[in-house]
């Protein structure tokens, strides 16, 4: 009788033990799965493209594409010539800054002249979202950035004497401090040889341009028969994406 | 002493338990594997998807800006250009042991040409008050790109009236405008030059989902209204577009940058009280009716004087998509 009772107890203990172990394992796996799935939501990158312009009274940041942002989560830092000149909140909490909208940062006084770098920081994420450069001169208007220069050559520098009517190959080497892609277009003013005031130069390896995307822009410019003979001036202007321009001239002898 | 029958039952029970434990163990291992896979996929696929969409966005942006620059330059040189809108880059995939790989859904996009989506009218007023039409209802045609994305906001681009726009939903921004030179050279004379390329061709579209789309642009004859002497007292430009707010913002920024003022509080005797004005129709620049209009008026520095040297260049280019 005693043996019988002891054997029944032993069988029950095995089953209870197994069930308990399975329960503990299921609970552990479930907890791990729950934690994995909840903690696994990734933080997506914030993408932002921005352009900046400025004058004596304000800096204007234009949202040029990417995420819509809460202005209250953004800080604007401005350094001029490497020195911190301004740090301010971009706007009130809840105001949305989205594509095509301008964010105007008023200036209590004009910033010192020089190259300003505007940095937009996301406060919660402590992350720099975008930077942009502005150039301030003494009257705090945007000016041609330092290093934005042109060097013009006619007919490869071999011969600048043209018999009218004829063509002259104009080649303009453009240097921009922010890189080749900042240059929007380069054009020639050929009114000095009785031509049009607007003739585009190219940097695509065609129409007299030796190589594409090498920052050397070229065009074959017509010198009409009606050109006044003698030393004449051709003008060249490059305009960048920020609207700044740089110019140079070259002399051509029309015979 | 344990009876024989009881010993046999106990042995059978232990065997059943071992079989059950093995089955449960396999199920639990599978459950853990599925959980880990799900976690990996859930964590990384949206990130890889967003990265692929962003990379495509940047490539298309570069392609559109290069094409826009070529179109603007082409009206004076007459040079044909071909732009290539790239297909989306293949997104990074996750390798799952025993199951192969899993990756994000690739974005889709369409390049389209609409021949009558914009309209520009350019006039100037002489000192005598006579109005001269430089361009009437020209600079039509838009080349557009629209991407359908899953992991980031949808994006698009457009080339219209020589400008390159980025479009996100109902909002847009001009990344690069048409060639516009504003030069308030002296207090008594302004120099303004504007080029407005138009695009023409049949309405067409092509999918950029899996292969590059090529856009051929062949400039036709162009015309220039070039003046060496001041030829206008006022310039009036009207642009019909789907993105009036973007054009107004861009023009306003360019005018301010050039030193022109919208309102002069204390004009000197003989000085214009305003260099320019930009207004939208409807006034809030909304595009609820499918489009809007931007009206620009530029005044010379002196009232009722012919003191603007205005140069307008316009031309048409044939567009085809393949």
Keywords:
heterodimer; A: Immunoglobulin-like; Immunoglobulin-like; 1 helix; 17 strands; 15% helix; 45% strand; B: 322 residues; alpha+beta; 6-stranded antiparallel β-sheet; 5-stranded mixed β-sheet
Question: Would you write up a description of this structure?
Answer:
The complex is a heterodimer of chains A (255) and B (322). Helix content of chain A is 15%, strand content 45%. By secondary structure, chain A is mainly β. Chain A folds into 2 domains: 48-136, Immunoglobulin-like (Sandwich), CATH 2.60.40; 149-254, Immunoglobulin-like (Sandwich), CATH 2.60.40. Chain A is elongated and about 125 Å long. Helix content of chain B is 27%, strand content 40%. Chain B contains 2 helices and 18 strands. A 6-stranded antiparallel β-sheet of chain B has the order 10-9-8-7-4-13, sandwiched between helices. Chain B is elongated. The relative contact order of chain B is 0.17. Classes of the chains: A mainly beta (255), B alpha+beta (322). At the A-B interface, helix 1, strand 2, strand 13 and strand 14 of A face helix 1, strand 9, strand 10 and helix 2 of B.
